[in-house]
Amino acid sequence: MKLEIFNTQGQKTGKSIELPDHIFGIEPNEHCVWLSIKQYLAHQRQGTHKSKERSEVSGSTRKLHRQKGTGGSRKGDINNPLYRGGGRVFGPRPRDYSQKLNKKVMRLARKSALSSKANAGQIMVVEDFSFDAPKTKAFKDIITNLNVSGKKSLFVTSDYEKEVLLSSRNVPKTVVMRAQDICTYDVLNNEVLILCEGALAKIQQTFGE
Asked: 12: which DSSP letter?
């Protein structure tokens, strides 16, 4: 697939670039995509949830009244889960939610996500750009010029661009990320994928195996 390259003013430069078919032109594997997104969302969970059970609640362990002869039900201590302030039965405990996924499955999932975006025509290529200092207004002007304002957009740079990253932090629905850091979730969670010209080589180098 061949795409035209735009500049930061939203104008065509007259140049074009060929997207490699083995990354942007494969048949998407939906199951691998599902596994990759499931793993990503699981890794976002801290797993620090905890509630106190009967043995951990602060309270006396004295038996409330004798076992028989009262005409009422049998009762143990005040930490009984049936009482207000008592412990919780089978409450949540800290755990690790991380999931293992084979490298080949993760690689195929990323390729499938990129291919889906390419098939839907949701990929743009722009010339490499940078700022001398963080400038939110200048970054918003680029978004407006590319006609992606109001859309969830992912800017993919070839390397770490501190000024570009800082300029985008206060812009809603916009994420800036290095080419080697993108994952399946990031690609599919945005409406438009905007690739800097130098990022394609990094993507091919990182995910093209």
From this structure: E
C-alpha–C-alpha distance, residues 129 and 78, integer Å:
67
Q: What Cα–Cα distance (Å) separates residue 62 from each residue in 46, 55, 74, 88?
A: 37, 13, 13, 19
Amino acid at 4: E
pLDDT in tens, 149-194: 889 999 999 888 889 999 999 899 999 999 888 999 999 999 999 9
Instruction: Enter the DSSP assignment of 88.
Output: P
Euclidean distance between CA atoms 131 and 129, whole angstroms: 7
Name 116's Cβ contacts closer than 8 Å, sequence gap at least 6.
28, 188
The 8-class DSSP code of residue 195 comes to E
- Give CB contacts under 8 A, 24+ apart, made by 55-60: 55/79, 55/87, 56/87, 57/85, 57/86, 57/87, 59/85, 59/86
DSSP letter at 186 equals H
Q: pLDDT tens, 10-55?
A: 888 888 888 888 999 999 999 999 999 999 999 999 999 999 999 9
- Classify residue 191 by its DSSP letter: S
